[in-house]
Amino acid sequence: MGKVTPITEQFQHFVRDLKESFWGDLNGKAQAAVKGLLEEESRRQRDRYLCREAYGRRDRGGEYRNGYYERDFVTRFGTLRLRIARTRGRAFLPSGLRGFQRRAEEVTLLIREAFLRGISTRQVGRVVALVTGEPVSAQTVSTLTKSLDRVVKRFHEAPLKDEWAYLFLDGVSLRVRRPAGRKRVQMLVAYGVRTDGQRRLLAFVRSQGESQAAWEGLLQDLYRRGLQGQHLQLIVTDGCPGLAAAIPTVYPRVLHQRCWVHKMRNILEKVRKRDYDAVKTDAQAIYRAWHGGHAQRAFQRFAARWRGSYPGMVRQLERDLPELLSFFHFPRHLWRKLSTTNVIERCFVEVRRRTRPMVCFVNLQSVDRIVFSIFNRMNPQWKNRTLQLFTQAA
Question: Taking 80 as the threshold, does the pLDDT of residue 12 lie above it?
């Protein structure tokens, strides 16, 4: 067998240029064919309208051919500059283009998706240029993304079925550029789980903080849309005082569970380094108990050991204890899920991941659009991915 000649860099360039030439020629021919068909369709429409030969006049209204004008359309074949036939009184867009408006739907979706993925409005134009051969201005991107506002409004107004058994409430902080400088706004979020494991992000609302009034507004919106709490068994929160005060005003008969992850963080930030591991172990013994009675005794041991060193921390834990032990009223296999807000915190991980490249939102409306787009992707994905733990027998 003869010696195989190694592939040289020059040959690799030749193959690449050949591929580019082939596909470039093919795309160019497709563009030319589509352009010719559409322009011919425009002329035919005008001729049918006039029912006359070229340069003929109509008897009524003095209507006659008035040449052409050029107009660009961004399509899946790239940007096409078409000669649109016209009369003195009207123009004749090809019927295949009537649904395109000024931009193909696929390109519009590309622009929205790129923006919602965290790409700046200026960079979106460059991304679109790679596909269509024509850049899109930042102003055009902003105009297109504003059309999402109607979709966001429909989400906020959509009715809810009163079928949710567990409600998880929490907030995520995001930065917004305002005239007075950068400010943080809070996004308050409601996440529901049914007894069959179906889950859904039900609502979100933008606020300046996590006050009682802000949380009451979100809860009353849920109630107004249909979640009246007939099947609601437990509301799990991060321990925010404003939220804890708001719950009884809307759902007074529903048990309230405070998140142990947040509580452990609050406890441990108050202890000295030398006591950190011991306090952590003693506090974990409370929520890891076999039942509510054991948890109460574990707290008594915790208080006896640490009241002298950290009296304020122990008093606060004692005040919060009833709402920290609500999960013991439910089947054992649900305790881990119902004792924290981890299920909604995982959603916030995705929000932070997607919004981090943006550094700072330009305005408040862009916050709603981005957060809605993230949540709106999660809900369909969850339709066939139930939380199996909630369907198990006790």
Answer: no
170 beta partners: 189
CB 188 within 8 A of CB 381: no
3-state secondary structure of 102: coil
The mean pLDDT value for 233-245 works out to 92
Helices assigned H by DSSP within the chain: 9-50, 105-116, 121-132, 138-146, 148-157, 212-225, 241-250, 260-268, 276-287, 292-306, 311-324, 335-338, 342-355, 364-382
Residue 72: its pLDDT value, please?
72
* Distance, CA of 174 to CA of 359 (rounded, Å): 9
pLDDT of residue 361: 56
3-state secondary structure of 275: helix
173, amino acid identity: S
Residue 329: closest CA among 293, 280, 353, 382: 293
Task: List beta partners, residue 193.
Answer: 166, 199
Q: Is the pLDDT of residue 30 over 70?
A: no
The pLDDT of residue 164 is 94
Does this model's pTM top 0.70? Answer: no
Say which DSSP state 383 is in: T
Cβ neighbours, 10 Å, residue 207: 17
Distance CA 128, CA 117 (A): 14
CB 251 within 8 A of CB 219: yes
Nearest by Cα to 161 from 212, 231, 241: 231
State how far the Cα of 187 lies from the Cα of 206, in Å rounded to an integer: 5
**How far is the C-alpha of 28 from the C-alpha of 116, rounded, in Å?**
31
* Spatial separation of the C-alpha atoms in residues 240 and 215, rounded to whole Å: 10
Distance CA 176, CA 351 (A): 14
At position 6, the amino acid (one-letter code) is P
Please say if the pLDDT value at position 294 is more than 70. yes
pLDDT at position 321, please?
96
Rounded mean pLDDT, 83-99? 76
**Can you read off the two tokens belonging to residue 369?**
């659009």
The pLDDT value given to residue 1:
47
